Amino acid sequence: MESLSPAIGVVVPARVPHFSSLRTLTPLLPIWRPKSNRVRRRIRAHAENTRPPSSAASAAAAAIDYSDPSWKSKFQEEFESRYDIPHLTDVIHDAVPIPSTFCLRMRSPTEDFADGYPSDEKWHGYISNNDRVLLKVIKYSSPTSAGAECIDSDCTWVEQWVHRAGPREKIYFKPEEVKAAIVTCGGLCPGLNDVIRQIVITLEIYGVKKIVGIPFGYRGFADKDLREMPLSRNVVQNAHLSGGSLLGVSRGGPSVSDIVDSMEERGVNMLFVLGGNGTHAGANAIHNECRKRRLRVAVVGVPKTIDNDILLMDKTFGFDTAVEEAQRAINSAYIEAHSAYRGIGIVKLMGRSSGFIAMHASLASGQIDICLIPEVPFNLRGPHGVLSHLKYLLGKKGSAVVCIAEGAGQDFLLETNAQDASGNIVLGDIGVYLQQEIKRYFNEMGTPADVKYIDPTYMIRAVRANASDGILCAVLGQNAVHGAFAGYSGITVGICNTHYVYLPIPEVISYPRVVDPNSRMWHRCLTSTGQPDFV
Ligand SMILES: Nc1ncnc2c1ncn2[C@@H]1O[C@H](COP(=O)(O)OP(=O)(O)O)[C@@H](O)[C@H]1O
Ligand SMILES: O=P(O)(O)OC[C@H]1O[C@](O)(COP(=O)(O)O)[C@@H](O)[C@@H]1O
Ligand SMILES: [Mg+2]
Protein backbone atom coordinates (compact mmCIF):
# COMPACT_ATOMS: atom_id res chain seq x y z
CA MET A 1 0.00 0.00 0.00
CA GLU A 2 2.51 2.49 -1.06
CA SER A 3 3.68 4.55 -3.97
CA LEU A 4 7.02 5.77 -5.15
CA SER A 5 7.43 9.48 -4.87
CA PRO A 6 8.92 10.34 -8.27
CA ALA A 7 10.61 13.54 -7.27
CA ILE A 8 12.48 12.42 -4.23
CA GLY A 9 12.92 8.69 -4.71
CA VAL A 10 11.63 7.62 -1.34
CA VAL A 11 9.04 5.04 -0.49
CA VAL A 12 5.94 6.83 0.68
CA PRO A 13 3.10 5.15 2.55
CA ALA A 14 -0.04 5.37 0.51
CA ARG A 15 -2.42 6.53 3.21
CA VAL A 16 -0.27 9.27 4.61
CA PRO A 17 -0.27 11.84 1.79
CA HIS A 18 -3.93 12.61 2.42
CA PHE A 19 -2.92 14.13 5.69
CA SER A 20 0.59 15.40 5.27
CA SER A 21 2.62 16.98 2.56
CA LEU A 22 5.21 14.68 1.10
CA ARG A 23 7.86 17.23 2.02
CA THR A 24 6.87 17.06 5.66
CA LEU A 25 7.11 13.30 5.63
CA THR A 26 10.24 12.81 3.63
CA PRO A 27 12.73 12.86 6.49
CA LEU A 28 10.62 10.39 8.45
CA LEU A 29 10.67 7.66 5.87
CA PRO A 30 13.17 4.98 5.04
CA ILE A 31 15.22 6.22 2.13
CA TRP A 32 15.75 3.96 -0.79
CA ARG A 33 18.55 5.29 -2.96
CA PRO A 34 18.62 4.44 -6.65
CA LYS A 35 22.09 4.05 -8.05
CA SER A 36 21.89 5.63 -11.49
CA ASN A 37 20.00 8.24 -13.47
CA ARG A 38 18.63 5.54 -15.74
CA VAL A 39 17.21 3.75 -12.72
CA ARG A 40 15.78 7.02 -11.43
CA ARG A 41 14.04 7.51 -14.76
CA ARG A 42 12.53 4.06 -14.43
CA ILE A 43 11.31 4.75 -10.92
CA ARG A 44 9.74 7.94 -12.19
CA ALA A 45 8.09 6.16 -15.13
CA HIS A 46 6.58 3.58 -12.83
CA ALA A 47 5.50 6.16 -10.30
CA GLU A 48 3.77 8.15 -13.07
CA ASN A 49 1.43 5.20 -13.45
CA THR A 50 0.92 4.44 -9.79
CA ARG A 51 1.07 7.66 -7.81
CA PRO A 52 -2.03 9.34 -6.41
CA PRO A 53 -3.95 11.44 -8.96
CA SER A 54 -3.81 15.21 -8.68
CA SER A 55 -6.92 15.50 -6.48
CA ALA A 56 -5.35 13.24 -3.88
CA ALA A 57 -2.06 15.04 -4.31
CA SER A 58 -3.69 18.38 -3.55
CA ALA A 59 -5.35 16.84 -0.51
CA ALA A 60 -1.83 15.85 0.51
CA ALA A 61 -0.89 19.50 0.61
CA ALA A 62 -2.97 19.91 3.78
CA ALA A 63 -0.10 19.22 6.18
CA ILE A 64 -0.63 18.17 9.76
CA ASP A 65 0.34 20.82 12.26
CA TYR A 66 2.24 18.69 14.76
CA SER A 67 2.62 21.62 17.10
CA ASP A 68 -1.15 21.51 17.63
CA PRO A 69 -1.63 19.41 20.78
CA SER A 70 -4.87 18.02 19.37
CA TRP A 71 -3.39 16.93 16.00
CA LYS A 72 -3.97 13.28 16.79
CA SER A 73 -7.69 13.63 17.44
CA LYS A 74 -8.03 15.85 14.36
CA PHE A 75 -6.28 13.19 12.31
CA GLN A 76 -8.67 10.58 13.63
CA GLU A 77 -11.72 12.74 12.96
CA GLU A 78 -10.64 13.32 9.39
CA PHE A 79 -9.93 9.64 8.95
CA GLU A 80 -13.35 8.75 10.30
CA SER A 81 -15.10 11.12 7.96
CA ARG A 82 -13.19 9.83 4.94
CA TYR A 83 -13.99 6.23 5.80
CA ASP A 84 -17.62 6.91 6.59
CA ILE A 85 -19.72 4.87 4.19
CA PRO A 86 -22.47 6.52 2.14
CA HIS A 87 -26.03 5.58 3.04
CA LEU A 88 -29.37 5.98 1.25
CA THR A 89 -30.61 8.23 4.04
CA ASP A 90 -27.89 10.78 3.17
CA VAL A 91 -30.10 11.84 0.26
CA ILE A 92 -33.42 10.09 0.86
CA HIS A 93 -34.17 11.49 4.27
CA ASP A 94 -37.57 9.84 4.65
CA ALA A 95 -36.29 6.28 4.01
CA VAL A 96 -37.63 4.12 6.82
CA PRO A 97 -35.93 0.89 7.89
CA ILE A 98 -37.77 -2.38 8.49
CA PRO A 99 -36.70 -5.45 10.49
CA SER A 100 -34.32 -7.61 8.53
CA THR A 101 -35.68 -10.56 6.61
CA PHE A 102 -32.28 -12.20 6.83
CA CYS A 103 -33.12 -14.48 9.66
CA LEU A 104 -31.39 -17.81 9.32
CA ARG A 105 -32.91 -19.69 12.23
CA MET A 106 -36.54 -18.91 11.55
CA ARG A 107 -37.18 -19.24 7.85
CA SER A 108 -37.99 -22.21 5.73
CA PRO A 109 -36.90 -21.87 2.10
CA THR A 110 -40.47 -21.72 0.85
CA GLU A 111 -41.73 -19.11 3.26
CA ASP A 112 -43.09 -15.90 1.83
CA PHE A 113 -43.82 -12.66 3.59
CA ALA A 114 -47.54 -12.30 2.97
CA ASP A 115 -48.19 -12.25 6.71
CA GLY A 116 -45.42 -9.79 7.51
CA TYR A 117 -41.74 -10.12 8.16
CA PRO A 118 -40.33 -12.58 10.66
CA SER A 119 -39.42 -11.21 14.03
CA ASP A 120 -35.76 -10.90 14.94
CA GLU A 121 -36.33 -11.65 18.61
CA LYS A 122 -34.73 -15.06 18.48
CA TRP A 123 -31.92 -14.18 16.18
CA HIS A 124 -28.98 -12.18 17.35
CA GLY A 125 -26.54 -12.78 14.53
CA TYR A 126 -26.52 -9.19 13.38
CA ILE A 127 -23.71 -6.68 13.10
CA SER A 128 -24.12 -3.35 14.81
CA ASN A 129 -23.73 -0.31 12.55
CA ASN A 130 -21.20 0.93 15.07
CA ASP A 131 -18.91 -2.11 14.89
CA ARG A 132 -15.48 -1.26 13.53
CA VAL A 133 -12.34 -3.08 12.36
CA LEU A 134 -8.82 -1.80 12.95
CA LEU A 135 -7.18 -0.95 9.62
CA LYS A 136 -3.54 -0.85 10.76
CA VAL A 137 -2.35 -3.40 13.29
CA ILE A 138 1.39 -2.84 13.51
CA LYS A 139 2.84 -0.27 15.86
CA TYR A 140 6.14 0.76 14.30
CA SER A 141 8.66 2.12 16.74
CA SER A 142 10.80 3.78 14.12
CA PRO A 143 10.33 5.07 10.58
CA THR A 144 13.32 2.93 9.61
CA SER A 145 11.54 -0.34 10.47
CA ALA A 146 10.91 -2.35 7.29
CA GLY A 147 7.67 -1.26 5.65
CA ALA A 148 7.03 1.40 8.30
CA GLU A 149 4.07 3.67 7.75
CA CYS A 150 4.44 6.52 10.21
CA ILE A 151 2.38 9.61 10.67
CA ASP A 152 4.97 11.59 12.64
CA SER A 153 8.63 11.26 13.55
CA ASP A 154 7.80 9.25 16.69
CA CYS A 155 5.56 6.86 14.75
CA THR A 156 2.74 7.83 17.08
CA TRP A 157 0.07 5.18 17.31
CA VAL A 158 -3.23 6.45 15.92
CA GLU A 159 -6.16 4.08 15.76
CA GLN A 160 -7.75 3.92 12.32
CA TRP A 161 -11.12 2.20 12.28
CA VAL A 162 -13.23 1.11 9.32
CA HIS A 163 -16.78 -0.23 9.14
CA ARG A 164 -17.38 -3.90 9.86
CA ALA A 165 -19.31 -5.80 7.19
CA GLY A 166 -22.26 -8.13 7.77
CA PRO A 167 -26.03 -8.39 8.17
CA ARG A 168 -27.83 -5.59 9.99
CA GLU A 169 -30.93 -5.80 12.15
CA LYS A 170 -32.70 -3.14 10.10
CA ILE A 171 -32.87 -3.07 6.31
CA TYR A 172 -33.85 -0.37 3.84
CA PHE A 173 -35.36 -2.45 1.05
CA LYS A 174 -38.46 -4.63 1.04
CA PRO A 175 -37.33 -7.83 -0.69
CA GLU A 176 -40.44 -7.99 -2.88
CA GLU A 177 -39.64 -4.49 -4.20
CA VAL A 178 -36.06 -5.34 -5.09
CA LYS A 179 -34.78 -5.96 -8.56
CA ALA A 180 -31.12 -6.86 -8.18
CA ALA A 181 -28.60 -6.87 -11.03
CA ILE A 182 -25.10 -8.31 -11.11
CA VAL A 183 -22.42 -7.26 -13.59
CA THR A 184 -18.83 -8.50 -14.08
CA CYS A 185 -16.37 -6.16 -15.81
CA GLY A 186 -12.72 -6.02 -16.90
CA GLY A 187 -10.58 -9.12 -17.30
CA LEU A 188 -11.36 -12.58 -15.97
CA CYS A 189 -10.34 -13.63 -12.49
CA PRO A 190 -10.80 -16.94 -10.64
CA GLY A 191 -13.82 -16.75 -8.35
CA LEU A 192 -16.18 -14.54 -10.35
CA ASN A 193 -18.76 -17.32 -10.54
CA ASP A 194 -18.38 -18.03 -6.82
CA VAL A 195 -19.20 -14.41 -5.99
CA ILE A 196 -22.16 -14.30 -8.40
CA ARG A 197 -23.46 -17.51 -6.85
CA GLN A 198 -23.22 -16.23 -3.30
CA ILE A 199 -24.88 -12.93 -4.17
CA VAL A 200 -27.82 -14.76 -5.75
CA ILE A 201 -28.16 -17.23 -2.89
CA THR A 202 -28.01 -14.50 -0.25
CA LEU A 203 -30.51 -12.31 -2.10
CA GLU A 204 -32.91 -15.25 -2.16
CA ILE A 205 -32.46 -15.79 1.57
CA TYR A 206 -33.54 -12.18 2.09
CA GLY A 207 -36.58 -13.00 -0.05
CA VAL A 208 -35.64 -11.34 -3.34
CA LYS A 209 -37.30 -12.90 -6.38
CA LYS A 210 -36.11 -10.63 -9.19
CA ILE A 211 -32.41 -11.18 -9.78
CA VAL A 212 -30.73 -10.68 -13.14
CA GLY A 213 -27.26 -10.80 -14.63
CA ILE A 214 -26.14 -8.06 -17.02
CA PRO A 215 -24.24 -9.76 -19.85
CA PHE A 216 -20.68 -8.82 -20.83
CA GLY A 217 -19.91 -6.07 -18.34
CA TYR A 218 -21.18 -2.50 -18.53
CA ARG A 219 -21.66 -3.05 -22.27
CA GLY A 220 -24.69 -5.22 -21.42
CA PHE A 221 -26.58 -2.16 -20.16
CA ALA A 222 -26.60 -0.54 -23.58
CA ASP A 223 -26.27 -3.22 -26.23
CA LYS A 224 -29.78 -3.97 -27.46
CA ASP A 225 -28.69 -7.38 -28.75
CA LEU A 226 -27.80 -8.51 -25.23
CA ARG A 227 -30.51 -9.73 -22.90
CA GLU A 228 -30.35 -9.70 -19.13
CA MET A 229 -30.08 -13.19 -17.66
CA PRO A 230 -32.59 -14.26 -14.97
CA LEU A 231 -30.70 -15.72 -12.01
CA SER A 232 -31.80 -17.98 -9.19
CA ARG A 233 -30.25 -20.54 -6.84
CA ASN A 234 -31.07 -23.16 -9.45
CA VAL A 235 -29.22 -21.33 -12.20
CA VAL A 236 -26.08 -20.65 -10.15
CA GLN A 237 -25.99 -23.86 -8.12
CA ASN A 238 -22.91 -25.29 -9.85
CA ALA A 239 -21.52 -22.08 -11.33
CA HIS A 240 -18.49 -22.07 -9.04
CA LEU A 241 -17.31 -25.38 -10.47
CA SER A 242 -15.95 -23.61 -13.53
CA GLY A 243 -13.76 -20.59 -14.07
CA GLY A 244 -14.66 -17.48 -16.05
CA SER A 245 -17.87 -15.53 -15.56
CA LEU A 246 -21.22 -17.03 -16.43
CA LEU A 247 -22.31 -13.50 -17.30
CA GLY A 248 -19.34 -12.70 -19.54
CA VAL A 249 -16.98 -9.74 -19.15
CA SER A 250 -15.85 -6.82 -21.30
CA ARG A 251 -13.83 -3.64 -21.27
CA GLY A 252 -15.13 -0.24 -22.38
CA GLY A 253 -18.87 0.37 -22.68
CA PRO A 254 -21.58 3.01 -22.34
CA SER A 255 -21.49 6.28 -20.42
CA VAL A 256 -22.49 6.41 -16.79
CA SER A 257 -25.68 8.30 -17.55
CA ASP A 258 -26.65 5.69 -20.18
CA ILE A 259 -26.05 2.97 -17.58
CA VAL A 260 -28.26 4.72 -15.03
CA ASP A 261 -30.94 5.36 -17.70
CA SER A 262 -30.87 1.64 -18.42
CA MET A 263 -31.12 0.78 -14.71
CA GLU A 264 -34.16 3.03 -14.41
CA GLU A 265 -35.80 1.42 -17.45
CA ARG A 266 -35.17 -2.04 -16.06
CA GLY A 267 -36.25 -1.08 -12.56
CA VAL A 268 -32.94 -2.15 -11.04
CA ASN A 269 -32.56 -0.82 -7.50
CA MET A 270 -29.65 -2.96 -6.29
CA LEU A 271 -26.54 -3.21 -8.41
CA PHE A 272 -23.64 -5.51 -7.60
CA VAL A 273 -20.52 -4.66 -9.55
CA LEU A 274 -17.63 -7.10 -9.75
CA GLY A 275 -14.45 -5.59 -11.11
CA GLY A 276 -11.15 -3.85 -10.53
CA ASN A 277 -10.06 -0.23 -10.28
CA GLY A 278 -11.74 0.83 -13.52
CA THR A 279 -14.98 -0.98 -12.74
CA HIS A 280 -15.09 0.56 -9.28
CA ALA A 281 -14.53 4.04 -10.72
CA GLY A 282 -17.59 3.28 -12.86
CA ALA A 283 -19.55 1.93 -9.87
CA ASN A 284 -18.82 5.06 -7.87
CA ALA A 285 -19.89 7.25 -10.77
CA ILE A 286 -23.11 5.22 -11.09
CA HIS A 287 -23.72 5.65 -7.36
CA ASN A 288 -23.20 9.42 -7.64
CA GLU A 289 -25.49 9.66 -10.67
CA CYS A 290 -28.19 7.73 -8.80
CA ARG A 291 -27.83 10.17 -5.89
CA LYS A 292 -28.08 13.11 -8.27
CA ARG A 293 -31.33 11.66 -9.59
CA ARG A 294 -32.43 10.87 -6.01
CA LEU A 295 -32.95 7.23 -6.87
CA ARG A 296 -33.44 4.71 -4.10
CA VAL A 297 -30.64 2.50 -5.40
CA ALA A 298 -27.78 0.66 -3.70
CA VAL A 299 -24.57 0.19 -5.70
CA VAL A 300 -22.10 -2.21 -4.09
CA GLY A 301 -18.76 -3.32 -5.47
CA VAL A 302 -16.82 -6.54 -5.00
CA PRO A 303 -13.15 -5.97 -5.86
CA LYS A 304 -11.98 -8.34 -8.57
CA THR A 305 -8.40 -8.08 -9.61
CA ILE A 306 -6.06 -10.94 -10.15
CA ASP A 307 -3.20 -8.42 -9.91
CA ASN A 308 -4.16 -7.73 -6.26
CA ASP A 309 -3.73 -4.01 -6.90
CA ILE A 310 -6.58 -2.64 -4.77
CA LEU A 311 -5.54 -0.52 -1.80
CA LEU A 312 -6.07 -1.44 1.86
CA MET A 313 -7.10 -5.07 1.48
CA ASP A 314 -5.19 -8.14 2.65
CA LYS A 315 -5.83 -9.57 -0.81
CA THR A 316 -8.47 -9.72 -3.50
CA PHE A 317 -10.25 -12.89 -4.55
CA GLY A 318 -8.54 -14.93 -7.27
CA PHE A 319 -5.07 -13.85 -6.19
CA ASP A 320 -4.32 -16.98 -4.14
CA THR A 321 -5.56 -19.15 -6.98
CA ALA A 322 -3.37 -17.28 -9.45
CA VAL A 323 -0.31 -17.76 -7.25
CA GLU A 324 -1.12 -21.45 -6.88
CA GLU A 325 -1.73 -21.96 -10.59
CA ALA A 326 1.48 -20.10 -11.43
CA GLN A 327 3.36 -22.87 -9.61
CA ARG A 328 2.60 -25.22 -12.48
CA ALA A 329 4.18 -22.87 -15.01
CA ILE A 330 7.15 -22.20 -12.76
CA ASN A 331 7.70 -25.89 -12.12
CA SER A 332 7.56 -26.61 -15.86
CA ALA A 333 10.08 -23.83 -16.51
CA TYR A 334 12.28 -25.28 -13.79
CA ILE A 335 12.10 -28.81 -15.19
CA GLU A 336 12.81 -27.55 -18.73
CA ALA A 337 15.73 -25.42 -17.57
CA HIS A 338 17.09 -28.10 -15.28
CA SER A 339 16.89 -30.81 -17.94
CA ALA A 340 18.55 -28.74 -20.66
CA TYR A 341 22.25 -28.16 -21.10
CA ARG A 342 22.76 -24.64 -19.67
CA GLY A 343 19.00 -24.13 -19.58
CA ILE A 344 17.24 -20.90 -18.67
CA GLY A 345 13.49 -20.87 -17.97
CA ILE A 346 11.45 -17.67 -18.09
CA VAL A 347 7.90 -17.35 -16.78
CA LYS A 348 5.92 -14.17 -17.33
CA LEU A 349 3.10 -13.62 -14.86
CA MET A 350 0.32 -11.04 -14.71
CA GLY A 351 0.72 -7.73 -12.96
CA ARG A 352 0.18 -4.61 -15.00
CA SER A 353 1.65 -2.22 -12.44
CA SER A 354 2.01 -4.44 -9.37
CA GLY A 355 4.29 -7.42 -8.95
CA PHE A 356 2.31 -9.24 -6.27
CA ILE A 357 1.66 -12.41 -8.27
CA ALA A 358 5.30 -12.68 -9.41
CA MET A 359 6.60 -12.01 -5.90
CA HIS A 360 4.29 -14.47 -4.14
CA ALA A 361 4.63 -17.15 -6.83
CA SER A 362 8.42 -16.88 -6.70
CA LEU A 363 8.41 -17.18 -2.93
CA ALA A 364 5.96 -20.08 -2.94
CA SER A 365 7.78 -22.09 -5.60
CA GLY A 366 11.28 -21.92 -4.19
CA GLN A 367 12.41 -22.57 -7.79
CA ILE A 368 13.01 -19.00 -8.92
CA ASP A 369 16.50 -17.50 -9.10
CA ILE A 370 15.49 -14.06 -10.33
CA CYS A 371 12.17 -12.29 -9.71
CA LEU A 372 11.59 -9.05 -11.61
CA ILE A 373 8.68 -6.75 -10.79
CA PRO A 374 7.58 -3.29 -11.98
CA GLU A 375 8.26 -1.67 -8.62
CA VAL A 376 11.93 -2.58 -8.51
CA PRO A 377 14.12 -1.25 -11.31
CA PHE A 378 16.80 -3.42 -12.84
CA ASN A 379 19.53 -3.32 -15.45
CA LEU A 380 19.84 -6.11 -17.99
CA ARG A 381 23.36 -5.41 -19.14
CA GLY A 382 26.45 -4.28 -17.23
CA PRO A 383 28.38 -5.94 -14.41
CA HIS A 384 25.38 -5.86 -12.06
CA GLY A 385 22.75 -6.65 -14.67
CA VAL A 386 20.40 -9.60 -14.90
CA LEU A 387 22.34 -11.12 -17.82
CA SER A 388 25.62 -11.24 -16.02
CA HIS A 389 23.91 -12.87 -13.03
CA LEU A 390 22.44 -15.47 -15.36
CA LYS A 391 25.92 -16.19 -16.65
CA TYR A 392 27.07 -16.65 -13.07
CA LEU A 393 24.13 -18.97 -12.29
CA LEU A 394 24.76 -21.12 -15.36
CA GLY A 395 28.39 -21.44 -14.35
CA LYS A 396 27.53 -22.27 -10.76
CA LYS A 397 24.55 -24.58 -11.05
CA GLY A 398 24.00 -25.20 -14.73
CA SER A 399 20.49 -23.71 -15.01
CA ALA A 400 18.37 -20.77 -13.89
CA VAL A 401 14.72 -19.72 -13.74
CA VAL A 402 13.44 -16.15 -14.06
CA CYS A 403 9.97 -14.97 -13.07
CA ILE A 404 8.97 -11.61 -14.52
CA ALA A 405 5.79 -9.59 -14.02
CA GLU A 406 4.22 -8.28 -17.21
CA GLY A 407 4.62 -4.65 -16.15
CA ALA A 408 8.32 -4.98 -15.29
CA GLY A 409 11.05 -3.38 -17.40
CA GLN A 410 8.61 -1.53 -19.66
CA ASP A 411 11.17 1.19 -20.29
CA PHE A 412 13.24 -1.34 -22.25
CA LEU A 413 10.39 -1.56 -24.78
CA LEU A 414 9.10 0.90 -27.34
CA GLU A 415 6.02 2.75 -26.14
CA THR A 416 3.12 2.29 -28.53
CA ASN A 417 0.62 4.52 -26.67
CA ALA A 418 -1.99 1.90 -27.57
CA GLN A 419 -4.91 1.62 -25.16
CA ASP A 420 -7.55 -1.04 -24.65
CA ALA A 421 -11.28 -0.25 -24.73
CA SER A 422 -11.18 0.79 -21.06
CA GLY A 423 -8.29 3.19 -21.59
CA ASN A 424 -5.64 0.94 -20.02
CA ILE A 425 -2.22 1.19 -21.67
CA VAL A 426 -1.40 -1.93 -23.67
CA LEU A 427 1.97 -3.12 -22.43
CA GLY A 428 4.80 -4.46 -24.58
CA ASP A 429 5.71 -8.12 -24.08
CA ILE A 430 8.61 -8.00 -21.65
CA GLY A 431 8.78 -11.80 -21.55
CA VAL A 432 9.54 -12.10 -25.25
CA TYR A 433 12.00 -9.20 -25.03
CA LEU A 434 13.83 -10.82 -22.13
CA GLN A 435 14.01 -14.13 -23.97
CA GLN A 436 15.54 -12.40 -27.02
CA GLU A 437 18.00 -10.40 -24.95
CA ILE A 438 19.19 -13.49 -23.07
CA LYS A 439 19.70 -15.37 -26.34
CA ARG A 440 21.54 -12.43 -27.86
CA TYR A 441 23.77 -12.04 -24.80
CA PHE A 442 24.88 -15.67 -24.74
CA ASN A 443 25.36 -15.69 -28.54
CA GLU A 444 27.55 -12.61 -28.26
CA MET A 445 29.55 -14.35 -25.56
CA GLY A 446 29.90 -17.45 -27.71
CA THR A 447 28.64 -19.68 -24.90
CA PRO A 448 25.40 -21.61 -25.35
CA ALA A 449 22.20 -21.12 -23.36
CA ASP A 450 18.99 -23.02 -24.00
CA VAL A 451 16.17 -20.53 -23.29
CA LYS A 452 12.56 -21.68 -22.72
CA TYR A 453 9.83 -19.07 -22.34
CA ILE A 454 6.40 -19.75 -20.77
CA ASP A 455 3.52 -17.23 -20.75
CA PRO A 456 0.66 -18.85 -18.78
CA THR A 457 -1.41 -15.62 -18.41
CA TYR A 458 -4.76 -16.74 -19.79
CA MET A 459 -4.40 -20.31 -18.51
CA ILE A 460 -4.06 -18.92 -15.00
CA ARG A 461 -6.85 -16.37 -15.24
CA ALA A 462 -9.38 -18.87 -16.53
CA VAL A 463 -9.14 -21.50 -13.80
CA ARG A 464 -11.77 -21.94 -11.09
CA ALA A 465 -11.08 -20.57 -7.63
CA ASN A 466 -9.23 -22.74 -5.12
CA ALA A 467 -10.70 -23.48 -1.70
CA SER A 468 -9.30 -20.45 0.09
CA ASP A 469 -10.49 -18.10 -2.65
CA GLY A 470 -13.82 -19.96 -2.65
CA ILE A 471 -14.29 -18.99 0.98
CA LEU A 472 -13.21 -15.40 0.37
CA CYS A 473 -15.66 -15.15 -2.54
CA ALA A 474 -18.47 -16.56 -0.41
CA VAL A 475 -17.93 -14.05 2.38
CA LEU A 476 -17.51 -11.09 0.04
CA GLY A 477 -20.58 -12.03 -2.02
CA GLN A 478 -22.74 -12.43 1.08
CA ASN A 479 -21.47 -9.21 2.62
CA ALA A 480 -22.16 -7.30 -0.59
CA VAL A 481 -25.83 -8.24 -0.26
CA HIS A 482 -25.91 -7.40 3.47
CA GLY A 483 -24.42 -3.98 2.67
CA ALA A 484 -27.00 -3.22 0.00
CA PHE A 485 -29.91 -4.27 2.22
CA ALA A 486 -28.49 -2.17 5.06
CA GLY A 487 -28.91 0.82 2.73
CA TYR A 488 -25.25 1.47 1.95
CA SER A 489 -24.26 2.53 -1.56
CA GLY A 490 -20.99 3.55 -3.21
CA ILE A 491 -19.19 1.00 -1.06
CA THR A 492 -17.06 -2.01 -1.68
CA VAL A 493 -16.38 -5.08 0.42
CA GLY A 494 -12.98 -6.32 1.47
CA ILE A 495 -10.85 -8.21 3.94
CA CYS A 496 -8.62 -6.13 6.24
CA ASN A 497 -6.45 -7.87 8.79
CA THR A 498 -8.54 -11.03 8.37
CA HIS A 499 -11.81 -9.21 9.14
CA TYR A 500 -14.46 -8.20 6.62
CA VAL A 501 -15.21 -4.56 6.06
CA TYR A 502 -17.14 -2.00 4.02
CA LEU A 503 -15.06 0.77 2.50
CA PRO A 504 -16.06 3.87 0.53
CA ILE A 505 -15.05 3.21 -3.08
CA PRO A 506 -12.88 6.32 -3.66
CA GLU A 507 -10.52 5.29 -0.85
CA VAL A 508 -9.62 1.97 -2.45
CA ILE A 509 -9.12 3.12 -6.03
CA SER A 510 -7.22 6.39 -5.73
CA TYR A 511 -4.29 4.58 -7.36
CA PRO A 512 -3.17 0.96 -7.83
CA ARG A 513 -1.66 -0.75 -4.83
CA VAL A 514 1.97 -1.73 -5.51
CA VAL A 515 4.67 -3.82 -3.84
CA ASP A 516 6.81 -1.83 -1.40
CA PRO A 517 10.47 -2.61 -2.18
CA ASN A 518 11.11 -1.85 1.49
CA SER A 519 8.54 -4.37 2.72
CA ARG A 520 9.31 -7.55 4.57
CA MET A 521 7.59 -9.59 1.86
CA TRP A 522 9.88 -8.31 -0.89
CA HIS A 523 12.87 -8.86 1.40
CA ARG A 524 11.66 -12.43 1.99
CA CYS A 525 11.39 -12.96 -1.74
CA LEU A 526 14.97 -11.71 -2.21
CA THR A 527 16.16 -13.98 0.59
CA SER A 528 14.51 -16.91 -1.12
CA THR A 529 15.82 -16.24 -4.65
CA GLY A 530 19.24 -15.09 -3.49
CA GLN A 531 19.28 -12.53 -6.29
CA PRO A 532 21.45 -9.43 -6.03
CA ASP A 533 20.46 -5.84 -6.71
CA PHE A 534 20.43 -5.39 -10.47
CA VAL A 535 21.39 -1.71 -10.39
N1 LIG B 1 -12.76 6.08 -14.68
C1 LIG B 1 -13.77 5.31 -15.07
N2 LIG B 1 -15.05 5.74 -14.93
C2 LIG B 1 -16.08 4.97 -15.32
N3 LIG B 1 -15.94 3.74 -15.84
C3 LIG B 1 -14.70 3.25 -16.00
C4 LIG B 1 -13.55 4.01 -15.62
N4 LIG B 1 -12.46 3.26 -15.89
C5 LIG B 1 -12.90 2.11 -16.43
N5 LIG B 1 -14.24 2.10 -16.49
C6 LIG B 1 -15.07 1.01 -16.99
O1 LIG B 1 -14.90 -0.11 -16.13
C7 LIG B 1 -14.88 -1.30 -16.87
C8 LIG B 1 -13.71 -2.15 -16.50
O2 LIG B 1 -12.50 -1.40 -16.52
P1 LIG B 1 -11.08 -2.09 -16.77
O3 LIG B 1 -10.03 -1.10 -16.47
O4 LIG B 1 -11.08 -2.73 -18.10
O5 LIG B 1 -11.06 -3.30 -15.76
P2 LIG B 1 -10.90 -3.33 -14.19
O6 LIG B 1 -12.16 -2.89 -13.59
O7 LIG B 1 -10.61 -4.75 -13.92
O8 LIG B 1 -9.74 -2.42 -13.85
C9 LIG B 1 -14.92 -0.92 -18.33
O9 LIG B 1 -16.22 -1.18 -18.80
C10 LIG B 1 -14.58 0.54 -18.35
O10 LIG B 1 -15.24 1.23 -19.38
O1 LIG C 1 -5.88 -9.27 -22.26
P1 LIG C 1 -6.84 -8.57 -21.37
O2 LIG C 1 -8.12 -9.27 -21.20
O3 LIG C 1 -7.04 -7.14 -21.73
O4 LIG C 1 -6.21 -8.58 -19.94
C1 LIG C 1 -4.88 -8.30 -19.64
C2 LIG C 1 -4.77 -7.71 -18.26
O5 LIG C 1 -5.68 -8.22 -17.37
C3 LIG C 1 -5.12 -8.28 -16.09
O6 LIG C 1 -5.25 -9.60 -15.69
C4 LIG C 1 -5.79 -7.32 -15.15
O7 LIG C 1 -7.12 -7.26 -15.47
P2 LIG C 1 -8.10 -6.26 -14.73
O8 LIG C 1 -7.61 -4.85 -14.96
O9 LIG C 1 -9.39 -6.51 -15.33
O10 LIG C 1 -8.03 -6.66 -13.30
C5 LIG C 1 -3.69 -7.86 -16.20
O11 LIG C 1 -2.87 -8.68 -15.45
C6 LIG C 1 -3.45 -7.90 -17.67
O12 LIG C 1 -2.64 -6.85 -18.05
MG1 LIG D 1 -8.10 -1.75 -14.65
UniProtKB/TrEMBL annotation:
Gene3D superfamilies: 3.40.50.450. It catalyses: beta-D-fructose 6-phosphate + ATP = beta-D-fructose 1,6-bisphosphate + ADP + H(+). One of its GO terms (cellular component) is cytoplasm. Substrate binds at T305, I306, D307, M350, G351, R352, E406, Y458, M459, I460, R461. Keywords: Allosteric enzyme, ATP-binding, Cytoplasm, Glycolysis, Kinase, Magnesium, Metal-binding, Nucleotide-binding, Transferase. Allosterically activated by AMP. Homotetramer. This is ATP-dependent 6-phosphofructokinase. It comes from Rhododendron griersonianum. The lineage of its organism: Eukaryota, Viridiplantae, Streptophyta, Embryophyta, Tracheophyta.
